[in-house]
Amino acid sequence: MTGSKVVAFGHFQPERIVPNTELEKLVETSDEWIVRRVGIQERRWGTGVETVDSMAIKAAKMALGNAEGIDAGDIDMVIVATCTATDRSPNMAARVANALDMEQGPATIDVNTACSGFAHSLALAQGAIASGSATKALVIGSEMLTDYTDFTDRTTCVLTADGAGAMIVTASEEDGISPVVWGSVPSLSDAVRIEEENNNKFAQSGQSVYRWTVTQLPKIASKIIERAGLQPEEIDGIILHQANLRIIEPLAEKIGAPNARVATDVVYSGNTSAASVPLALSKMMASDEPLPSGSKALLFAFGGGLSYAGQIITIP
Description:
Helix 6 packs parallel to helix 7 (245-255). This protein is of the alpha/beta class. A five-stranded mixed beta sheet has the order 1-7-6-4-5, sandwiched between helices. The protein is globular and about 55 Å long. The relative contact order is 0.20. It has helices spanning 20-23, 31-38, 52-66, 92-99, 117-131, 206-227, 245-255, 266-269, 276-285; strands spanning 3-12, 16-19, 42-45, 77-81, 107-111, 136-144, 162-172, 181-184, 192-195, 201-204, 237-240, 261-262, 296-303, 307-314.
């Protein structure tokens, strides 16, 4: 079997809920300004005990619990997408494998393409399965963005949040994951950044990113759908990087998928970078109205680098 499919989802968020009114005490802002500019009403921040790897482990455990007939001992590849890794080495994937007692020694890989990291990681898992190098992969996005947030900058601190999302991917006779469409914009490589010269705090050139997203993302999204051999009308769900509701809504409309449910988890979870796509989809699937089995869901993210990646998955 050289095909692959997603078989289960999982997620984790810290318990601390931070409404916009709490941010009014930190910087010159208001609930009205935040909602109007980015659409966020509240977000989840770490409580002081969470780490990138601890959140990844909890999301992984949920995904494994939702994967019928699969346990940690069956996983032969672990990929963690993050730009906020706790340590340089060992990587977060190795910490996950150790915590889950994966004594069989899976491949453990971290991916840092910031917010697009999960879509990149899903494509790497798909490629490994297609080549025969893996049969069952655990793919996770986990971020502690608040560790890298400048809480004096009202343009960024209103966005950032913490959380993790995970998927289990297995070999399949039929492809349940479309070929990835990915790339970068080198001229905007520093438009979204966490750099030492800025005290390792998250910063972005918001207007440059916004102009690029509104002009280029619809074209890339159309290419993803085309490469999957589908028409926009056949898309049942749209899960975009949860960066800003004012980007998500117009982009979803331009994609032209009238039957698709659009994930808007950013309203309640904020921007969790590489965790945002799997987190939003896992929460949707755990809700009272999950996407039906067999649905086609478009996953698409963009972020630091400036990198982007996306594919379409079949909902298990």
